[in-house]
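#onboarding

Welcome to the new folks! Below is a worked example of what a typical request in this channel looks like: someone posts a single protein sequence, and someone else replies with the predicted structure as tokens. Don't worry about understanding the tokens yet, we'll cover that in week two.

Example request:
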Amino acid sequence: MLPPVVRRGVRPAGPRGAGSRNPGGDHRRHRVGRGGRRRRRAGPSRSSGPPGRRPASGARRRGPGRGPPRRRARAGRHVQLGAHRGVDRRDLPDGDAVTRVLVNLLWLVPGVVGGSEESTTDALRAVADVLDRDGSGGDLDIHLAVLEQFAHAHPDLAERYDLVVADQDGRDKRRRVWAEQTWLAARTRALRPQVVHHAGGVVPFVHPGRTVLTIHDLQPLDLPHNFRPAKRNYIRLMAARSARAADIVTVPSRFTRERVVERLRVAPARVEVVPWWVAPPRHQDTSEPFPLPPTLGGDRFVLYPAITYPHKRHDVLLDAFALVAARHPRLRLVLTGGAAASESAVQARIRQPDLDGRVLRTGRVPAAQLESLFAAAALVAVPSDYEGFGLPVLEAMVRGVPVVAAAAGSLPEVARPEDLVPAEDVAAWAAAIEAVLAESTDARNARIAGGRERAAQFGPERTAAALLTAYRRAAAARVPT
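Example response:
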């Protein structure tokens, strides 16, 4: 076990009585749902705790220029975190005055888990923004259980939520899963939340409190041939058990809701759709855009940002692009994203004579470079035939880039009807791409405006409202059995 250390003002749980020189002490101050702000109590202020103790795990140390801490109205009991701590019954909610929510993010290894990291962290940003703006979160006290590097990867969330930090980085998957089954249960009993949100698709075997479960998709069940036997069998065993254990299940789309209801036999009334949204690029204040790959040489290009899983259907796009490329000698195709099971087939197809030199396979690229690619692309193509939501489609529309997407999975819920193409129809894909390339400036601008209008339907308010509804329903136990 690693010793607890101070990290951006966030301290993991440890022995009691710790402060800045003994990190990991008592958990004193709890941020509420209103973006981390506290309501000042009328009358004399009360002490942050008994004399001689310092703020501890999850407490926020005030930096230069910050005034005295603002507190929320008295909520009842005090919570102590850590293996050696008891519970002082002063700062937990009295009755239903405040609902404490713990969000389990121990599955979230920054930079590794893909789109689910973006969707989850953006949802938490939406919750903080909406509650901070309209003041409706006085009944919520939200905490995040995270890995060590979370605060570094998402410093804005570390500033807005209290973090309960596990002393591991998540690289050892077995150790991380074990922490979910043991460490998390202990911290949950200490913090005593009314609701625990397991945002990674699995509810641990030991799960105190009312439970909200997020299922991003059911690919391992619907497309078992795309996964290794170990993962396929693990998900098959855990998905149904987790869904039965949850009071509320959240999903990003109606498509995924239907799959969960059918596959896992969950009562429809227990499944809440919490659609994803796309936050504006966080690096947009940089003075210079990230340079495009020099091999593009100023040519127009089609962009597909996707890891090479079989269901992403790079094969369909490559075959369609070969037809288009024959008539557009200065057109290129750019494929970003990591390598997966279809990588060797993709590489072999790229080397065929009809595509030789016309496809740029970049692999993973920095976020800033991906933004530059979005900005310069003639269009974004998304031929995937199975998506739990379809984030690349929304990302493109938010950024004002024309989209062509497969009429499969959840994509029809996100894309405009006129931007959809039959998933496996190569000729239709070639025709759709050429139609976008041939548009006049006015027609292209109208397409972009229509995409932005569609994307506006997936805003942060909608995401936050749906997620908060799930929390409140679980806390109130208004859930069909």
